[in-house]
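Suppose a colleague, Dr. K., hands you the sequence of a protein chain of 137 amino acids and asks what its three-dimensional shape might be. Before reaching for any lab equipment, you can write down a predicted structure in token form. Begin with the sequence itself:
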Amino acid sequence: MARPLGYLPPTPPDTAATDELDDLVAALHESGLLRALTGGVRSYPQLLGTLLDVLDARTVRSVVALTTALRDLDPDQAERLATGLRRAREDAATAVESKAEGPLALFRRMRDPDTRRGISAALAALAAVGGAMRDRP
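The predicted structure, expressed as tokens, is then:
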């Protein structure tokens, strides 16, 4: 019985990465972003100096504190809150343009569970902010 050949033909080099890199550079060039990035890199010292003139330690600490608060947001809750804020903006614009409601009509609104839920959420948020303002580091 004959032995199998131990020869494997050479595989061509993988050019997928270089092809993708060429496509990326071409796309950046066509969009004009490559020129903008090149200009930004060339003027890096001036940009950095301007940025450092605007930012101070207090501003950086504030940005870090706010971003840590945003990091803890649940995306589903944030979407529900954003939807509520969009509706609130539309309803407020409509209410401003219409005739003002009297005290009894406003009191009748308290029977609406959505109104009570909104007031409860607003009061809970205000209580949390007030409590955080009382607790000084």
